[in-house]
Design brief:
4 helices, 2 strands, globular, mainly alpha
Length: 56
């Protein structure tokens, strides 16, 4: 199964170090470019930003 995720689930799972669950549950995870930019914007750091960068 392929999923497309918005910011909140990715951010929240990354913040608790469980981002890997998305791949375990769904296999392929597509993160839209706008969501990726929002999560990794250095001007607005969010919990889990580093995890998101290494997840891709």
């Amino acid at each position: 199964m392929i999923i497309v995720s918005d910011t909140s689930p990715i951010n929240n799972l990354a913040a608790i170090n469980h981002l890997h669950l998305l791949q375990q549950l769904y296999g392929t995870v597509l993160i839209p470019e706008a969501v990726y930019r929002e999560l990794t914007d250095p001007n607005f750091p969010v919990a889990g930003a580093i995890e998101v960068q290494t997840f891709i």
